[in-house]
Amino acid sequence: IQLKLDPIKVFSYIKKQNLPGRVVSNDGGYQSIDIQNKPIHLVDEILKQVNIFGKKCNIKNNLIMDNMWLNINKHKNSNREHRHLRCIFSGTYYIKVPKNSGNIVFINPNVDIMEYAWHRSLFDDFNKFNSGHWYIPPSVGELILFPSFLKHYVEPNLSKEERVSISFNITNE
Question: 163 - beta bridge partners?
Fold first, then answer.
């Protein structure tokens, strides 16, 4: 999903100056604590898309924003494999994405079984149905939504520029 929200870049750098950082899944880089004064236009657009996605998944309650944080990864910074517990969906909105700044990689929940039962020689090529990992190169203005139970990580930023994103968790009312 592509969103066009340019003022969010300015908002992000202001928040970095005013919010303490923390270490959760990040290897280096800056990850803020929960953003209390969330940018309403971004939250509204995210919730609009999340509720459309939730209806496709037959979730019966409205979905709400649980928490939101800022990520700024400099050269060689990355995020370790993790998942988001006690929420329904999670996502990331990409603000600044230099070339070679790292893909987000999702791990198929069946990867262990697949690697045991399906030898690589079975396939001419890998696709979304037979892959153990899904590599998604982000782009500026892109919103990526995913089930919170899905393990994922972010590859190292090989660019000399910062990659900037805002991540969030969604729960139900």
Answer: 73
Query: What secondary structure does DSSP assign to the chain, as a single string?
Result: -B---THHHHHHHHHHHHS-B--SSEESSEEBS--SS--HHHHHHHHHHHHHHHHHTT--SPEEEEEEEEEEE-TT-EEEEE---S-SEEEEEEEE--TTS--EEEE-TTHHHHHHH--GGG-SS--TTT-SEEEE---TTBEEEEETTS-EEE----SSSPEEEEEEEEEE-
- Dump pLDDT digits (tens) for 62-101: 899 999 999 999 999 999 999 999 999 999 999 999 999 9
Low-confidence ranges of the chain (pLDDT < 70): 1-7
- Whole-number pLDDT of residue 137: 96
- Paired tokens of 135: 């590599």
């209806």: which residue's tokens?
A: 55
d(CA 145, CA 143): 6
Spatial strand order of the sheet with 63-73 comes to 30-31, 63-73, 163-172, 89-96, 143-147
Whole-model pTM: value is 0.87
Residue type, 128: K
**Rounded Cα–Cα distance for residues 65 and 43 (Å):** 7
